[in-house]
Write a structure and sequence with these properties.
Number of helices: 8
Mean pLDDT: 75
Strand order of the largest sheet: 3-4-5
Number of strands: 7
Distance between the termini: 35 Å
Radius of gyration: 26 Å
Structural class: mainly alpha
Largest sheet: 3 strands, antiparallel
Length: 317
Amino acid sequence: MRTDRWFVLFILVLCWGLPCQERVDRGFSNVRTVLFREMDLEKDCWERSDVALLLARRLMQELVPTRIPVDAVRMCEYFELAERTVREVPAHSAARRLLYAAFADTVGGYLKTYGLSLAKEAYYEGKIDYRQMKRLYDLESRLKESLGTDGKGWGDPVSLSRFARKAKPLELSVADVEDPCQALITQEFRAPTGFSGDASREDFHWIPSDLKIPLPFLDDDDKPRAMAVPLKRRSLYSLSSSASADVLIRYYTTSVLCLDNKAKDFLRPSQESRERTFPTQCFQGKCYNPIKTFQVQFYRWIITKHRLGSQSYRLET
């Protein structure tokens, strides 16, 4: 393939681009390098090959987004297309070795610093599936292997908390389950002490403590490898298996729908229409919102289990 054709393909990759959110500071794309060291700044004389590599690295820097990608699937496809484009250069040419080294350093650094963090967030939100997530990990592994590096020279994984992101509402649905509570391992409903069967539903519905949905449980908080969830069909999952890809989302949606159904069992039609989203249950003057209570408890569990998204988490075939 002629070099000019490669540059046409390269420009097409740049033009295709990625859908992103609002622009952030330019430092967002600074992923550092494993090709050069700080001591190289002290060199009085550079070889022509080093200058060519530096220029190629600068060119490849234009590949990485300067904004936050909004579509992790598109990001994966984008980098795979860019890799295929670079591989179109004849395999035994010096240009191929130089360009691929610059590409691997740039994209590998971006994946470690930003890309995989963004993809992990999308993965746990259910926006990217196991197969696509594994493709990103495989790409990172290929890039590291081609450079003979462990990636320590690249930037550390960034915390996404400093970037404001728009989250889409989660659609709650449980397939093939008429009663979501039947899919969960829960404690049977028990009326609290002092409740009389003659009491009206207006005075008493039910309180959260009477329908206990256990939170998930990790085998180890520091280096988790397995997780137990209160789902009847299957309760134990390996975190490196594709079977665990959406288990937290299934657990959450099933739990919320179960709580919602149980709440409506104790609501009159007028109350149901007025409190359809988050019905409140009251007993002896004390009111509770079971769905919000569950959401708060689940949220606290998630933010304390930060290791679920750590570098130690790896996907397996």
